[in-house]
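Example pasted here:
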Amino acid sequence: MPSIDTLFNAFITLFVIIDPIGNAPLFLGLTVGLSAAVRRAIAIKGSFVSFGILTLFALTGTAILDVIGITIDAFRIAGGLLLFVTAFEMIYGQRQERREETTASVLAERAANLAVFPLAIPLLAGPGSISATILLSSEFSVYSAANGWAGTLSLVAIIAVLLAITAGLLIAAQLLDKFIGNTGKLVLTRLLGVLLAALSVQYIADGVLAFATH
């Protein structure tokens, strides 16, 4: 069984990388114009999807990537490119314009997709958190070898607790919506779009640098 220090270090590592506090305002910007109920559903679904993805890598480690011939660096570049598209739409207001032109049913479908991308992938279960999960899986496998699945199940439990906290923080982020008004929403959306663009470029740069040094 992993020690308390090992469990705490793993939790802190994933908490810092997933950054639920930092992702809360990003979530607010991505879901601008949506109702509280839809935002809550997106937050919960996105956290569940992220839990499934990270749990998969906690159980399999690098095996799943090796089987399909994908490196974590390639995943980092792909995630960065996809995130940049979302950032571009936020900066130029295209996301809000499309929402106003669609019916409620189409909006509901888009909201469901939003929970998967970009919330679950790559903001919550992105290259950084997947990389950390794979490394922690390797570390915790030592305890699993000695005590069955104790190490792996401990890592999965940490992921579950962390993403439950993340869902709570994302849901609470909607409280800010009552105080910033329409102008504040526009400013926030474009500002966060710039931050998302910078984050996507960082993902791409890290992936390209890793390829160049190999």
